[in-house]
Specification:
Strand content: 15-25%
Number of domains: 1
Structural class: alpha+beta
Family: Belongs to the YciI family.
InterPro entries: Dimeric_a/b-barrel, YCII
CATH architecture: 2-Layer Sandwich
Pfam families: YCII
Order of helices and strands: EHEEHHE
Number of helices: 3
Helix content: 25-40%
Strand order of the largest sheet: 1-4
Protein name: YCII-related domain-containing protein
Distance between the termini: 17 Å
Radius of gyration: 13 Å
Largest sheet: 2 strands, antiparallel
Shape: globular
């Protein structure tokens, strides 16, 4: 998932703690592989460990960033075939 901020960074940061707690809960369920802010801070990247785009969109709709209207996400499918994530366990 690639996010784009829809609000000034200070408005995004006001929701950041809730967003990070949301991601932490997903990590505990093995649904988030990694996540982080883009540089420069115009959005972020969340690599989800899900079966399909529909599940990814369902999950990301619960993100406080989305619910508060400070960011939107675009789903990009990806299958790692090399590197550290090559054999990452499937959901």
């Amino acid at each position: 998932m690639i996010s784009k901020y829809l609000a000034p960074l200070e408005d995004v940061d006001a929701v950041r703690e809730a967003h990070l707690a949301f991601l932490e809960a997903l990590e505990a369920q093995n649904l988030v592989v990694t996540a982080g802010r883009q540089d420069p801070a115009v959005g972020g990247v969340v690599v989800l460990n899900v079966e399909d785009e529909a599940q990814a969109l369902e999950i990301i709709a619960q993100d406080p960033y989305v619910q508060r209207g400070v960011a939107e996400y675009n789903a990009i499918g990806w299958l790692p075939t090399r590197g550290a994530l090559k054999n990452y366990p499937k959901p």
